[in-house]
Amino acid sequence: MSIGENIKRIRKEKGVLQKEAAAAVGLNGSNYNRMENGHREPTVAALKKLSELFGVSTDYLIDPDTDLPKEVIIEDKTAQEQLRLISQLDEDDKQFVFQMIDKILTNKKFKTFFQENMQK
Questions:
Q1: Residue from 95, 93, 74, 66 nearest 6 by CA
Q2: 18: Cβ contacts below 8 Å, ≥ 6 apart
Q3: Hey, which CATH number is domain 3-62, 2.10.10.90, 3.20.20.70, 3.40.1190.20, 1.10.260.40?
Q4: Angstrom distance (rounded) from CA 101 to CA 58
Q5: Where are the domains of the chain?
């Protein structure tokens, strides 16, 4: 199925009129119709506007049968696992991570110090 056919099918599923979609994309009705019929390729900007109008991803407009994950879940990792992953980074990235950790720990120490000394 072509991109134009996908867009047309999704537009109809969402109950959006062709003239509404054309206005959202900034095309006249004739040019929008040519896009849906495969005689004109949609621009990246048009795909973005249509994805927002239809409430779908641009990937879905291009290929609705793609097996992209719907949701990515990041699980908490143990400290040991995090250290293992950090050790696999290149040297510059490792230094950056350790500098960020050091900054956070230093900020916490200062915060604790000021809280303890301000109460006296």
A1: 66
A2: 11, 29, 32, 33, 36
A3: 1.10.260.40
A4: 37
A5: 3-62, 79-118
Q: Give pLDDT tens digits for 72-84.
A: 555 666 777 788 8
Compute the distance between CA of residue 95 and CA of residue 40 in angstroms, rounded to an integer.
Answer: 50
Which tokens go with 7?
């867009």
For every residue of 13-26, DSSP letters joined together read HTT--HHHHHHHHT
Global confidence as pTM: 0.54
In residues, how long is the chain?
A: 120
- Which H or E run includes 27? none
What is the C-alpha separation between 59 and 53, in angstroms, rounded? 14
Distance in angstroms (rounded) separating the CA atoms of residues 23 and 6: 18
Report the distance separating Cα 7 and Cα 29, nearest Å.
14
How do residues 20-63 score in pLDDT, each as one tens digit? 999 999 999 999 999 999 999 999 999 999 999 998 888 888 88
